[in-house]
Amino acid sequence: MTLAMSSAPGEVAGRGRVPGPDPAWARTAAVVWPSVDEPGRTAAQPARRRRGPADPLGHYRLVRFEGRVRFVVAAELGRRARRAVLRYGNDLRSPSRRWARRLVGSWFLLGARDRVGDLVEVPGDDDALGLRTAAAAALGCDEEAVHLSFAVIDREGSARPTVLVSDGRGHARLFLKVGAGAARRAALERERDATAVAAARSHRSDLGVVVPRPVLLHRAGAGSALGMTPLPDDVTPVDVHDPAPTWRVLDRLVAAGPTTATRLGESPWLRRLLADARGLRDGEGPHGMPVGPVVAHLGRRAVEMAAEYHRHHGDAFLLHGLRHGDWSPWNLGWTGAGARRRLVAWDWEFGEAEAPVALDRHNWHFARATSVDRVAAGTAAADLLERSASDHPGELGTSPLTARLFLLDMAVRRALLAAAGEQRAAEAAAALLDVLAADID
Predict the structure, then answer these.
(1) Which distant-in-sequence residues (6+ apart) come within 8 Å of 20 by Cβ?
(2) Which residues fall within 8 angstroms of residue 89, CB to CB, at 6 or more apart?
(3) Which residue, of 162, 179, 202, is where some domain finishes?
(4) Residue 283 carries which DSSP code?
(5) In principle, which of 65, 240, 292, 370 could form an S-S bond with 104, CB 3.0–4.6 Å?
(6) For the segment 280-299, what is each residue's pLDDT rounded down to a tens digit?
(7) pTM for the model
(8) Which of 350, 353, 439, 351 is nearest to 401 (CA)?
C-alpha cells in the first residue's frame, strides 16, 4: 500500500522536500481512516490548501523523526495543546525513548518544517471508522470539541494504532486502541472484559490501585476501537529493580475478588491455552487465519508440552483468580503522594478472569529481563526456571511448575503473534519451547 504525501502548504514538490512512501504511516492510516469507496486505499490525502479550525474536514500534522512519521497531531491544536498531547505518557517510557520523544516534540513545536511540515486531510465521507464521532458520543459532547492525535508504530504484524482523544487545550479525555480484522476485534473485547472486572474492584479505597475504565467498544466494518479513560496527569514509573510494592497491590487486587484452588487438569486457563495451541498446530491462527509450517510446528510442540504437564501435574492445585497478563514495568505507574499514593495498572489486553495468578509474578521477571535488561528469550527463560527453584513460594503461589506454565503460555502467545506476521515472535517462541524441552529431559 502506498500513501501520497505533501510538503508543507505552499511548498513546491520539485524542491526535493516531498518524502517518500512511509509503510508504517500508510498501514496505520488505513486502519484509522479506512476508505468507504476503495478498501485498498487510505483516506488520508495531501491537504490542498490551508483551512481554518472550524473546517469540518479533519486536518493532521505529521511529526517526523529520521525520515519516518512518528506522531500525527490534530492540526487545529495550538502550541500549548500540542505540547500537552505529545507529553502524554512520555514520562513512563525508558530514558532513551523519553528523550527521543522530547527531541521530536521540540522540533515539531519549534516548527522545523523540513521534518514536520506535512499536512494531510481526511474527508468526512471517507472516514468509515468514525473515531471522532464515536469518541464525541461517548463523552457526550460535540465533535468539534474533540481532537485526535496518535502514535505511528513501525512493527511487524497487524497495525495496532493508539489514539489520544483530547479537548482543545490538549487535555486527555479518552485513550483509544484501534485495529482491523476479527482477531484484533476479539483481543479488544477480551481487554474490555478484563479491564471492566479490574476497574470495578479498584474502586475499593483500601486496595491502593487505579485501573482505567472502559468507556466504549466501537465497531464499524472490519475496524474496531476500544476507548479507555486516560491515565492521571501525574503518573510516574515504578521502580524496575524493586517489584515488591507493586506485588503487594497485585496481591490485594487478586484477593479482592473470587479465587479458587483449581486442579491444573480442570483449569479454564489450560483449556484456553490448548485451544490456541491446537488451532496453530492444525494450521489455523486466530479466527481461522491460515498459518505457515513454522507456526504450525510451534503449535504442535506447545500441545505436546501441555500434555506432558497435564500428565504429570494434572492433579496439582493452583490458586486461580484475576490475571493481568502483562504485569510489567511499562504497564504500571504511581499516582498521588503519601497516604494517597496509588498504583495505576493499564493494558489488560492479555487479562483473564480465571487463571493461575502466579503467572503475573513470573511475567514481571521475564519482562524485565527481555525488555529492560535486553536478555535473549531463551536465556531469560532458563534464568526464570532457576529462580523458581530457589525462591520461597510467594503469596501468589509461585513455584517451578507455575514458572514452566508461564513460559508455555508465553510461547503460545509469541506463536500467535508470529501467525499475525511477527517473525521475531516465532524465534522467541521456539527458544522458549527449547528451554522447556531441555528442562524435561
Answers:
(1) none
(2) 231, 235
(3) 162
(4) T
(5) 65
(6) 999 887 766 788 999 999 99
(7) 0.86
(8) 439
